[in-house]
Each structure stands twice: as structure tokens, then as C-alpha cells.
Amino acid sequence: xxxxxxxxxxxxxxxxxxxxxxxxxxxxxxxxxxxxxxxxxxxxxxxxxxxxxxxxxxxxxxxxxxxxxxxxxxxxxxxxxxxxxxxxxxxxxxxxxxx
Length: 99
Prior knowledge:
Blueprint: H1 2-10, H2 15-19, H3 36-51, H4 53-70, H5 92-98
């Protein structure tokens, strides 16, 4: 959905008009159009992840580490950042040892 909005907005089409062509694929409102606020909220979230990709990567790494602690049989996370922004200079291995 967000890619459709970004692509059509780049051509100069207003979000109000784009919203009417979008359809919610799953959930309670399946088959309905999203509200204008939902479209703008999704755009804001997308922009935030584009501005701060390192924060998103860090959050994914921390979530994977948390899941590994809660479910050790899941194995190590597939990939993660080499360093942690939690403590300057600490590596992912240091972070795992502290847990």
C-alpha cells in the first residue's frame, strides 16, 4: 500500500484521491478504504524509517536477541549489526554476554 501511495504521490496526485483507490487486504476492515489519517500515518512511519535506518536495524537486532533469550532453541539471529548503539564501542557479542 505504501509503495502505491509513494509512486502516485510522486506524480503529483493528492493523497485524498489516492486513498479512495486503496483497499485494506486483511483484518476487520478488509475490503474497505483506509482513512486519510491512516494513509498519512503510514507515510510518516515510512519517512521515519528512511531517515533513521540504523535505529530500525538496531531494533530488529534487539528483538532477535530478546527472542533468542526467551526461546534458546530458535538459534542465533540470522544477521545483526556489528556494534550496538546502547554502549559506544560494544560489539554484538558483548551485548549477548551481558544478557
